[in-house]
Queue: 3 jobs
Job 1
Amino acid sequence: MAPLVLPHSRVGEGPHHVIAVHGWFADRGAYEGILRAVDRESFSYAIPDLRGYGEVRDAEGEFTTAEAAADLLALADALQWDRFSLVGHSMGGKVAQRVLALAPGRVRRIVGVSPVPAGALQFSEEARDLFAHADERPGNRRAIIDFTTGGRHPDAWLDAMVRTSQEVSDQKAFRAWFSSWADEDFREQIEGAELPVRVVVGAHDPELNADAMRATWLAWYPNADMVELPGAGHYPADETPLELVRAVEDFLRADG
């Protein structure tokens, strides 16, 4: 299927171009809570909807990280951005690495926020069943969000996160995306890449935490570092937005 120039929001007019990629449970609206705090003079952000989400909720597609990487490169071409940095939350972190594998010369820096690694994830039978049926079971979505944020947040917030995830995503695409971000393994295509990489994790994320990053991202990228946010779980943009902006932009700004 031909690449799609994804619908997107633009924020900022700075010389450092950045594409921010959302995760499994949200469309580009996942970043709305941090946009008033970003540096619009240093950075130009493009924040797209991936296929199956938001404005392209009904788009046809395979709903894979490889397809998304091709779509993001088509977006960069349309914006006339020859080189750019990538920010990716959760599933979006795996998509960002696919872009690197496809066009390594175009990527300046990567920031993974609670990011999925480039290798396949290991699930217990119970956990896989929980994730695999989250497309059709709102209770599964709620349980996943609650677990990955440390069981600390109000019921109303959890319920709102579930409602939003259902409203902005196509059920078929949501299911297909799980198979892609969870089971694909393209570690060999990115391991040893020397671009600067930062991972930002929440101290209350029980899975994609500091230990998981040391075993994957930090082991595979020789110029990687990590920031742990004490007040966050898996959703720093919601839980600790200002701390997230600081962790992301300080790193991107170091590129000059």
Note: The radius of gyration is 17 Å.
Job 2
Amino acid sequence: MHCHSRPAPPAAARCCARRPHLAIRAQQVAGQGKVYIDPTEKEVAAFAPATVANLGPGFDWMGCAVEGEGDVVTARVLPDRPGQVVIDSIQGDGGRLSLDAPKNCVGIAAIETLKLLGAAPSCGVALTLQKGLPLGSGLGSSAASAAAAAWAVNSLFGCPLPKEQLIYAGLASEAAVSGYHADNVAPALLGGFCLIRSCEPLDLQRLAFAGELWFVLVNPRFEAPTAEMRAVLPKEVPMKQVINNCAMGGSLVAGILLGDAALIGKALNSDAIVEPVRGPLIPGFGAVKEAALAAGAFGCTISGAGPTAVAIVSDPEVGQRVQAAMVAAFKAAGGLEVNSAKVVRLDNEGAKRV
């Protein structure tokens, strides 16, 4: 990446490949003209994975990325439209998503990423979105779109921004569609587990898990909009339930740091605040949880706002048994067919070029 201004900027502004904020500072101090940043490529495609948020007691403060399906965003240079963002097309959404950039999570993430570059883009950006995740699934569908868009646009300009900074673009996007929380978009960008201490200001910790971790994800044909699932949350919580969730949240973090899948499973299985009010809204979920445990899962809960159910297992062989039991329970107890059922590993990479 290189920067240029009209007229030519001082040396400090030209050295903005890794620190684009220097270009703005040079403009202010030296009184130069507007500083621009050029793309380094004509087109970039980026992928961001599905995420599992909350993980039981980690409501709004814990999430992780999982391998398998995700969203792909392609960013293309628009030479004669500086700073503009347009959405050319969206596939895989059934025509439900808006092509108006300021009203779509990919458009919002792209717009915010351009703002973060630290200098005015000398071109516009056209986006295409390929949805690999179903809407309203509890698998971080909007976060995957936002993360892929942010990484694609950043890559178009030579990756001047670290992934951590792009979380701000994802937060702006999430705020428009599902709420101002980073437990999906942070792991979608960074991979692994992310503990969110605060969003204002953003304060998070990526947690490393030693070894492999296996998840069973079963997504039934039932939509659970985040807004509706948040509406049932209690306004006040008894002290006993708070103490339980604090202990289980601590156990969840301990399990991650110790590389203990069984402890993670036990912790996510023990939410006493959110799952008890959301679970009954997902037909058959109680039976699905019981079936998962009986088939050998360490624990089972709701992924994000649902309706996807997530279980932690020791290995893929146990995962296949648990998956079959969960699918059967959704059909028998909930009367629900299943969109997808899979056994996947923790994704430690997050957003990447494809």
Note: The first strand starts at residue 3 and ends at 5.
Job 3
Amino acid sequence: MSLDQPHTNGAPRDAGVAVAQRIRANRMQMSPAMEKIAGLLLDHPTAPLDLSITELAQQAGTSAATVTRFCRVIGYAGYVPLRVGVAADMGRGDVTSSWHTDLGRSFDPDDPAERVLEALLDTHLRSLRETATSADLEQVTRIAARIATCEHLDIYGIGGSAVMATELAARLYRIGINVHAWSEVHDGLTSAAIHGGGCVAIGISNTGRTLETEQMLAQARSSGAFTVALSNRGDSPLARLADEHLLTATPDEYLQPDELSAKHSQLFVLDLLYVLVAQQNFPRTTTKLAASAMAVGPHRRPPGRPGRGSGGSRAAKEPARRPA
């Protein structure tokens, strides 16, 4: 078996072979995109210890999927085993160091469930509190007013941020906003290109460094749309290109960009934005919500209705008789 064949359990075939040695031994079978990753890791051997897979891909000018394929070519099952290999090469890590890099420093692999629960609760609560404290309510109200009166709203998000975009779009659509959520860059660019001055575009990215989201928001702005960025860094590329930036908080204990406490902060800001948009045109909001509630009402079981197999009076089980 060659170095490029990982074990099925995720461990490399020969843990004694250094990462740099693996890269050099397998360069002949690498694609041009993988060559970029190889060059980056040979120049900066500790990069995987400091960067997420998405950040490494961006620095190499490629994709996270290509990084995963690169890991397999040099004998690792994925990015986490590669990190373990790099840590071992540097003489400053083991499986625990990789755990801390990927899942955070608030708890260890052998912590009891109670400790994990407490750490997670503390992290999520602090994320929400810090986000609320830093919120500029005048700014959010100003953005809500633009959305409430816009011709069309685009919301862009990739990966986990796509879930946030879809959630906000669904809620705003129910209250009469002409809105679409885009998670595929070609579709998003197509929509952004036909925007005008009466349109609004929102880009969601926790790090603010998701290339596809940047591209879609930049296209919308160049087309004349009013643009908004939602991220946890005010100095991120996404924040810099937008007309307005909404800030969310992420505790330092977590290094993984997709940590759920970051998502909760995003949802908190988006929920605030939704309510403020709804307030802008209260009659329209209540009319739309009442209409949608009536449409889905027949598909909901009435409260207190006995389920199948449950007890109940004879009158509840027998159909009512029509009067003669």
Note: The longest strand covers residues 152-157.
